[in-house]
C-alpha cells in the first residue's frame, strides 16, 4: 500500500472541507472495495476521509411507504431492519446477500453506490426503486446517477449522504453470484407499483447497471415470469469474461428476472 | 482489487508485491478397522490385524495439537518476529517471455529503509534450483533439465519469474523500493496452452532446444496393444483436459533467514514438508561450506507444493549473511497463485479396446503434460506416477502409454495432492464410464466384468505395479448400498418434477502410497516419565503429533498426552524423509510403533531389575511398570532415574518398505443441475474406502473429507486461466473459486479395510485418496446427468455453471 | 508520513500506539501487539483468516485501517476463552475435529462466535451461509459445521438450564 493520510470526519461539512484542502483525497466508508484496491497498489489516494462516524449519515427512517437510508448505514443494518423488510423486502434481502457477513458489517450503501461497481448489488435496487441519491450538494435521480462502469454523476468532493425512495407494492431481487468472488454475474431487481414495473440489472452489462425496458413494458400488462418468455437482452451489450460468455450472462439476466418476479409474487 | 477482476494483471516491475515420494500431500492417517462417519457413530466392521478393541491405535482420540490451535497459539513462520528483523519482497517479471536489463538500482537503493537489493549477479555463486526424476526416453537418452535460476539473469519465462530481492526495514518500504528498480524489458511471443506447445511455430520457451518438448516417456507393449485393438469388438475414445490447479493452502509460504558468523552457520525457518530434504537442497544451491539448520514450525497446509525448495529460501539466507540481521519474506496470495508450483494440467487422448461383452483388451494413452517454463523439483516425474497407475483396478492385458512433457511460458508444475495418481484415476474412471455408455452397460456392471479379482492377487499391472490385496467389487457393492444406488430412479423423477436434471456417478479408484523407502523414528524416555518421539516427517495439519503418539503410547502403556512428538528441526532429528505421497503413517507409523516396542523392552528390563521380577512378568500401564498380579510397581520417571546407561532409555526403528501400498475404494456422487443457470450441486456423496488399517478414525475421516472437497473443487469450480499473452487471469480468490462451506455437502464415509500384506501393520495410506476418488466421481455424475437429459457425452473440468449451460445449449441446438 | 495515535481495546486490554495511516488493523495486531492468532491468508478480503470481532461485529482485520478501528473494542481468538479455559466453540472444534492445519481456525472460531449471537440456534444451512466469508482448504467443512452446531446446542442447553 502507498503512503496516505487519514482524517475521521465528524460531520458532512467537515468531510467536504477536508476533501477541498486535500490533494488526491478519497472518501472512505466501509472501505471494503477501496482497501483491497489500495493493498494491490491499484489506487493511491494521498488522503482518506472517513465518513463512517458521521451521525447524520446513519440509520433508516420509514414513514409509511417513504424510506430514507443514511449513506453510512451498513449492509448488515439494512438486511436486519424488520421495518424495512416489512415495506420493501427486496432491498433487505439484497443487502443480506452482499459479499459475506464480514463485508456486510463494514460495507455501506453509500460506498457501494458511489463506487458503482458493475457487479455491485445496490445500483440495481436504486434504479428499479427510482431512488433519489442525496448528496451534500443536491439530489440526483438514480437514473441520472449511474454513468457506466465505476462512473457516477458525483463531483470530486461530493458526498452521498442518504438515499430515499417510495417502497413499491411488490419487489424482489434475484442474483446469480460469481462462484469465486460472490459478486453478481447477473442480479435483477424487479419493482412493481400498479402497472408501473421497473427491472434493473447489475453484473451483466458492459456499461454497468441498466434498466431492461422491454421487460418492463411486457410486465406492465402481465406481471408474471411467463411474460418474459419471448424476450431477450441484447447479447452485444453483455460482459464476457473467463466466468461466462455474453450469451450466458444474457441468459442469466432473463432467468434471474423471472425468479425475481416469481418471488415478488 | 474489485477492479482487478477479469483484468490483465499489471505485474510490472513495481508491483513486486507481488525426495521423490516424500513431497506430495497431506500424509495419511489410517487405521485399525472399518468405521462409518454417518452421525457420531463409529462402527467397526473388519477385524483388526493386531490391535485389540481397547487399543489406542484405532481409537478416535482427540488431537493433542488442537489446544494451541484453537487458542490462536499456533506458531507459523509468518507469526515469528525476530529481534532486528528485516523484510524482503521479490521483484517479479510482468511478462511471460522476454529479455531484460536492469538499468539502475540507484533510486531503489536510496529509498527509505532499504538495506540490500540482490540481483542475479549477486547470487552468481549459487546453483540453480535442482530438479530430479528425469527418465530415459525411448531413445535411451535422458532429456536435459531446465533448472530455475535463483534470480533470472537476462531472460524471463513466465509472469512471476524472479528478478530481484529487495530487503528493507519494513515490508512496505521494501515494496515502495521495488517499484523504483529501473528495468528495461523486451517482450517476446509466449506459448501458453499445453496443447499448443508443440505446434509448428510455437514460440520456444528454451530457444536452444529444437522444440518445446521437455521429454518423452513410454510404457507398456505397443505391439501387443495394437494386436488387442485389431481384435476389438469396439473401441471407445475420449479426449479431455485435466485442468491446472493451484494448491491454495491457507498459509502462504514464508521464510526467515538467520546467519551466525561465529559458527559459520545459517538457519532457515520455513514452512516445509520435511526439514531434511529442504536442508539438503538449499545447501546444494548455496554451495558454500557453511552449515545449514532448517526449522519448520507449524505449517498451514502443504498438499505437495509446500514441500519444494523455492528461490526465496536461499535468498533470505544470502541476505541475512550479508546484512548480519534476520531477514523474513512472507509471500502474499497473489504470489502464491503466480509462483508456487501448480498442479495437474494434462491434455489427454485415450482409447480402450473391448470385446463384445465389454471386457477390456487393451488401453492406449497419449498424454501431454505441462511442465511450465522450467523443470521444477519433481515436476518431470509427477506424470509418471500416473502412467504406472493407468490401468487402475482393472485387469487390462495390454497397455501402450506415451507421455510427452512440454514447456510453456507458465508457472512450473509439480506435485499437488495425489501427484499423478488423481490424473490416472480420472482418466481410467471417466474412460470406463464412456465404455459403459458405448456398450450400453451399467457403470457397475462394466466395472464388475473388468475388476482384478481377489484371487488374482498379488497382481502385477502392465504399468509394473504389484498390488498386494484388494476387493474392488466388495467396496463398490457396499458403496452402492450406502448410496442407495437402487433408489436413484425415484430421486431422478423428483428432480425432474422440480425442473432439474440429476445424475449419479461412481469412481472405483486405486492409488499408490508410501513409495518404496523408509522413515526412522527415535524414541526416548525422559526424566519425568514422558516419552519423546523424534521423526523426520512433517505435519502440515494431518495430526502426526496424535497419530504417532497413539502408536508409541500403545507400546509403553501411556496416555497419548505423555508422548511428545517432535518434528521440524535438523539439529534435533538426525534424518528423515518428510511428508508426502501419503507416506508418514504407513512408514513412520510402523517405525514409531517398533521403536516404542524396543523402548518398552528396555523399560521392562530395568523394571525387572528394580522390582526383582522377570521382564516377562512386567506390564506397562498407566505410566508405570507393574509386576503382573501384584501391587509391585515403579513409575517410568523412577525407571528413568534408575537407568545406569542413557542408551537404555532410547530406542529407534526404521521400517523399510520395498513396494508401495495401494489404497482403493469407491466414491459415489449424485448431482442435481439447474439447467437454467447450469449450476451443478452435489446433493449426495458416499465413500467406501479400503485403507488397510485404521490408526485414528476421526483423523482419517478428516483427511477424506478435505480430500474429497479438493476433488470436487477441481471438478466443479477450480480453474487456472492464463490469457494468450501469459498473464494469469485467476491470480486471486476474486477469480479462482475455492470451495466454500456452502458449496459442498456432508459426506457418508465408511471403511472396508483389507489389510495390506506389504506393510507391516497392514496400513495403506490415506492422505490423498479423497482427492483421487472425488474428481472422477463428480464428473461421472455430471456427465451422467447431461447424458440422460441431453445426450451430452463429455464436458471438461471444471464443470462450472457457465460450462454446463454452454454444453446444454450446444446439445439443444 | 506522520504517525497517528491509535487507542484500541484488544481482548479487554487498552492499547495505545502510533501507527502509519496506511497500516491495517491486522498488522497492528500481529506486528505491534504480538496478537498472532488472526492470520493473513489473502490479499482480496475473501479468506477470513484475519477475522476479529470489532464492536460486536465480525470484520476482516486485513480490510480495516488501524485508524478506522481507533476507539474500537476488538476481540480476537486469544480473547474468546475465559481465564479458566476454552470457549465452548473452541472445545467443540477440538471435539469434532473441526481443524487440521489450524491456520484458518482462529478466524473460523471468531466468526462462529459472532454467528451464534446473530443466530443462536442456526440450521446447518444457516451455518454454511453464515461462514461464507471464511475459507478452509483442509477439512472440507463438514466437521467445522458439526462443531458449530454442537456448540450452539451446548450454549442453548446452558441458557435453558440457567432459566
TrEMBL record, chain A:
It holds the Pfam family CO_deh_flav_C. Keywords: FAD, Flavoprotein, Oxidoreductase. Residues 1-170 form the FAD-binding PCMH-type domain. It comes from the Bacteria. The keyword Magnesium does not apply. PANTHER family: XANTHINE DEHYDROGENASE SUBUNIT C-RELATED. This is Xanthine dehydrogenase family protein subunit M. It comes from Oricola cellulosilytica.
UniProtKB/TrEMBL annotation, chain C:
Keywords: 2Fe-2S, Iron, Iron-sulfur, Metal-binding, Oxidoreductase. InterPro entries: 2Fe-2S-bd (IPR002888), 2Fe-2S-bd_dom_sf (IPR036884), 2Fe-2S_ferredoxin-like_sf (IPR036010), 2Fe-2S_ferredoxin-type (IPR001041), Beta-grasp_dom_sf (IPR012675), Diverse_Oxidoreductases (IPR051452). Residues 4-80 form the 2Fe-2S ferredoxin-type domain. Signal peptide: none annotated. GO terms for molecular function: 2 iron, 2 sulfur cluster binding; metal ion binding; oxidoreductase activity. Pfam families: Fer2 (PF00111), Fer2_2 (PF01799). CDD domains: fer2. It comes from Oricola cellulosilytica. This is (2Fe-2S)-binding protein. PANTHER family: OXIDOREDUCTASE WITH IRON-SULFUR SUBUNIT.
